[in-house]
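Intended use. Records like the one below are meant for learning the mapping from a protein sequence to its folded structure. Do not use them to infer anything beyond what is encoded.
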Amino acid sequence: MIEARDIVHRYRGQSVPALAGVTLDVREGSLFGLLGPNGSGKTTLISILTGVLRGDSGAVRISGLDMPAKAREVQHILSLVPQENAFYPTLTVAENLKFFASVQDIQTNVQASRIDEALHITGLESATGIRANRLSGGMKRRLSIALGLLNHPRLLFLDEPTVGIDPQSRQFLLEAIKRINASGTTVVYCSHYMEEVEYLCDDVAILDFGRVLKQGSLAALLDESRLVAAEVPVRPAGLQELFFKLTKRDLRDTMP
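Structure written out for the chain above:
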């Protein structure tokens, strides 16, 4: 589904590249975890893969289509749910869904069914008349995901979808994401929460300082993490051990 080769990107005025030769493969139908600490380059990479940002060099193919040359065709098969909520706060849940369905060129005769489906998946059926700025943090994230489902994407990018929400909303979202993937949608799940990636994902890439440090099936990475954990027997084997071995334990303070 995704083939990325040697992606390099440097923001203007920055001496260190945000991405320094990233190569990535995502299988169609997988639930792929992109795991890394803050400032590792996850959001930059997603922006390039979705055509929001153009990399300085490298090659990207989405479902066999070259990016950014075929970006218009690719937009019809993918959806991006960004880390920041992207909807109109003074519109109701229903009004936001109707507006975004119309601007995505979804046929009028299927808009209502698409909206109903998105509401059902995200558990927002009873919130349609509530203005978005009155929703809880968890409901806002669910609305963002509902908007991302309207075009029935074959490829769905989720950028830190559970940041700042309560435990119940978090668990609901994780289960909803599993169901979305089970329906046939390839999901790229971008997070720094190791337990979420371990719970959800089939395949994982660990990104830090703009480089992919490790990529493979979750099972293979967990096998490697058990070897790491064996060096420190008091810790349970899990993705966390491999993550810290690769990225170290230094604090990652990022400046706005």
